[in-house]
Amino acid sequence: MIHCGKKRVCAVLACMLISASILICSWKDPQLHNNITRKIFPQSTTASPAGQLCRGKPAQNVITALKGNRTFIISPYFDGRESKVTRVLGIVHHKDVKQLYCWFCCQPNGKKYVSRAKIDVHSDRFGFPYGAADIVCLEPENCDPTHVSILQSPHANTDQLPSFEIKNRKAESFSVDFTVCISTMFGNYNNVLQFIQSMEMYKMLGAQKVVIYKNNCSHLMEKVLKFYMEEGTVEIIPWPINSHLKVSSKWYFMQDGTHIGYYGQITALNDCIYRNMQRSKFVVLNDADEIILPLKHPDWKTMMSSLQEQNPGTGIFLFENHIFPYTISTDVFNISSWNTVPGVNILQHVHREPDRKEVINPRKMIIDPRKVIQTSVHSVLRAYGNSVNVPMDVALIYHCRVPLQGNLPRESLIRDTTLWRYNSSLIMNVNKVLYQTVL
C-alpha cells in the first residue's frame, strides 16, 4: 500500500499506475489496444480482425434504410477538402442515433477497415424528429476505398449488408457551367405549362442540366420529364421518402406525427450539391416555380462572371425572392393553344407584390459547390469563403405562385415586365416542347 502525504502526489502516482497497467494489458491483448484507440481517437481506423475479403451487396436504391429504421443512407462522397474523409449523406433520428461505423473496402487486397463515424445532424431541422445528417468517417491510410457499408456496430458480418459506392473519388473537369437542383417534386405535381416555361428559361439563361428529386407527379408530367430526359437536360433522382418516413408537405413541425418536413427537401439539396461537385461549375438551388432573372445581364454566365469579379473569394450568391401572384393576370400573351395545358402561363403574370417592412424576403442561391459543406433551403449552413446578397437591381427571383399579400388591390402591386425580354424565344421553345409532348 502506498501512503501519501499530499493528495496531489497520490493522484499523480495513481494515474501512473493505471497508465502502466493499460499499456501492459494492451501490449498483451491487441484487441484491447484497438478498443482503447477507438475511444481516444473515435475516427481512427482498424483492420477487421479476420482480415476478411470485401463482400456485401451493392445498394440498389437512392434511399436505403439501416436496421432499426432510425438511419437512412442516401450516398457517400469522398471529401478531401480538409482531410481524407468519406462524407455519407443521410437522414437520422436526431436523438436515437448515437453511434455509427463506416466499414471500408480497400483494394486491391480486398480487406475491410472500420472507422467510427462523426454524426453531424444539420442545424436546420425545423423541429422534426428526423433531419439531414453528414455521417463522416476518416478513411484508412494507404487506401482509396471505392465502397463503404454503414453499421451500428464495429463488430458485424457485412456480407449481406448493402455496400455503397463512394462518389467523387476521381477528379473530373466540369462538364457543364450551371446545374439547377429542384427538390422535391411531390403531390401528384401537374403544373405542366409553368414547368416547361421554367425549363426553357433555365436553358436560355445558361443551365445545361436540371436535376429533379421526384417523389411523384401526374401522368402528363411524366411525358414531359421523359422528353427532357431524352433531350439530355433532365436527370431524375427517384425520391420515395414516404416509403420510409411520415412526410410533411410543410417545412415546419406541427406536432402531427410526421417525421420530416417537405419530403426531405434539405437532404435532397445537399445530395444534389455533392452529386454535382465535380461536374458543374455552379449549382442553382431553387424550386420549379422560381427563376433567377438577371436585370443587368443577358444570362447567368455573364452575371456570375461580373459578380465573382466584384466579390473575389465568394462562393455563395443569394438572390431575393419576389412573389408574382398568379391571381393577377394580363391579357397579353394569352396563347389559345396553351389554354388546354394544365398549369400557369407565367408570361401573363408580371405584377409583383411590394416589400413588407416587417418581413425579410427569403433568398435562393447560386453556389460554387466546392465551397459548400452543408446547405439549408434559403442559406448555406457551413461553407468555405464568403456569401453575398446580390442587390435587387442586379437580379431577382421571379416566383409565380399563390399570393402572400392576397388582400392588396391590383394598383398596389408593382408592374415588372423583365420576363418579357425573353418572350419571343420562350414562346417558340415552349411550343416546340408542347407539340412533342402534350398537344
TrEMBL record:
<keyword id="KW-0328">Glycosyltransferase</keyword>
<dbReference type="GO" id="GO:0016020">
    <property type="term" value="C:membrane"/>
</dbReference>
<dbReference type="GO" id="GO:0016757">
    <property type="term" value="F:glycosyltransferase activity"/>
</dbReference>
<dbReference type="InterPro" id="IPR008166">
    <property type="entry name" value="Glyco_transf_92"/>
</dbReference>
<dbReference type="GO" id="GO:0005737">
    <property type="term" value="C:cytoplasm"/>
</dbReference>
<protein>
    <recommendedName>
        <fullName>Glycosyltransferase family 92 protein</fullName>
        <ecNumber>2.4.1.-</ecNumber>
    </recommendedName>
</protein>
<comment type="similarity">
    <text>Belongs to the glycosyltransferase 92 family.</text>
</comment>
<keyword id="KW-0812">Transmembrane</keyword>
<dbReference type="Pfam" id="PF01697">
    <property type="entry name" value="Glyco_transf_92"/>
</dbReference>
<keyword id="KW-0808">Transferase</keyword>
<keyword id="KW-0472">Membrane</keyword>
<keyword id="KW-1133">Transmembrane helix</keyword>
